[in-house]
């Protein structure tokens, strides 16, 4: 056990908690959030802790797969593979590649991937020897590949014609959460590029929960608990104002803690120390989803006599009625989005997808608005209604 390591029921183990960004170089500009994910990978390589990193690259292969896990062995390769990819990525090819040589690696991943690698390392000594550091990402949704197809189709690029997608392009003067998504693809035989504002697109509104895979609804690992360092977005008012993006950082590994302290002493990083409560506040929606509301989703599976994974929480039907309703409608949205999209593709008709999903989305919005109103004081409610009427 690492001396002086602390434990929080939600965050898991931690040495240090921060919010901030990389102040040197182009890391922040080129990263999805504060750029720390790429910075720490470069530091580990340059300081000789690793020989390479297993992470995710954009592809333009003819197989139509837009992103894949890959192994980067140089600083240039690492720098060219920053940014969040909201896309399913498969790991076996990269694991086989790192088994070829006796070298040390870091890996980036969602909580389920990092946990799987940890379990594999318990069984496979070579994997254990190779993978020295896990850089975990906080992960709200695991999207299917159809999420990207649908985002692009909404902009006019048909499924199969999307060549490139950048999910998060920062926009000067906007909130960090108001990023754009950029698509490049074929329209009538010509290559065109479009951008859409994430929250404004029908598919891109994460609240709607389109194209989620089931793992998103059955994980209880909010903060990638088995990773050496964890990165997310600082979704807090004091950081959201800055369109350039700010990370939350949970440090569990003493070597990474030292690298960060060295970076701070050289002004390469700009970080604020946070307490556990503030880290949790930055991900309050995700905490509700992975902890408070999970027992109800487990209960639903049990009641329907369906298989579900064993979790640290017991199944329970105890949830306020309106929250149960939101869970039910969210499940419908994510399940129906897969089938209705398939039907829309068969009909070659995007509007069929929007029409089929709209009713569920309206039900979700009404229920969610009721929840928000219930949590407000009368003065807040008047302010809220006035804002809605004026907008
Ligand atoms: C699917 C997904 C869902 C997320 N959900 C949330 C959320 O709900 N809340 C939140 O606060 N943060 C979430 N994040 C994390 C957030 O989007 C940023 O990735 C994180 O803050 C790091 O930003 P950065 O600028 O420091 O990293 P960057 O400097 O941009 O580097 C990101 C690193 O992660 C690698 N990477 C990108 N996509 C993947 C992937 N799918 N699997 C494995 N490695 C990848 C890249 O190759 C790169 O090495 C999510 C990320 C992903 C990939």
Produce the secondary structure layout:
Layout: E1 6-8, E2 12-14, E3 16-22, H1 27-30, H2 36-46, E4 52-58, E5 67-72, H3 75-79, H4 92-99, E6 105-109, H5 111-123, H6 125-130, E7 131-137, H7 145-154, E8 162-169, E9 180-187, E10 190-197, E11 229-233, H8 237-240, E12 247-251, H9 254-265, E13 269-273, H10 276-281, H11 284-292, H12 294-303, H13 321-347, H14 350-374, H15 378-390
Parallel strand pairs: 4-6, 6-7, 7-11
Antiparallel strand pairs: 1-2, 3-12, 3-13, 4-5, 8-9, 9-10, 11-12
Bound molecules: flavin-adenine dinucleotide.
Characterization of the model:
The protein has 15 helices and 13 strands. It is an alpha+beta fold and 391 residues long. It folds into three domains: 6-138 and 212-282, Aspartate Aminotransferase, domain 2 (3-Layer(aba) Sandwich), CATH 3.40.640; 145-208; 288-390, no CATH class. The strands form three sheets. Strands 5-4-6-7-11-12-3-13 form an eight-stranded mixed β-sheet, sandwiched between helices. Strand 9 (180-187) and strand 10 (190-197) form a beta hairpin. The protein starts with 5 loop residues before the first strand and ends with a helix. The mean pLDDT is 95. Bound molecules: flavin-adenine dinucleotide. Flavin-adenine dinucleotide (FAD) binds next to helix 2, strand 4, strand 6 and strand 11.
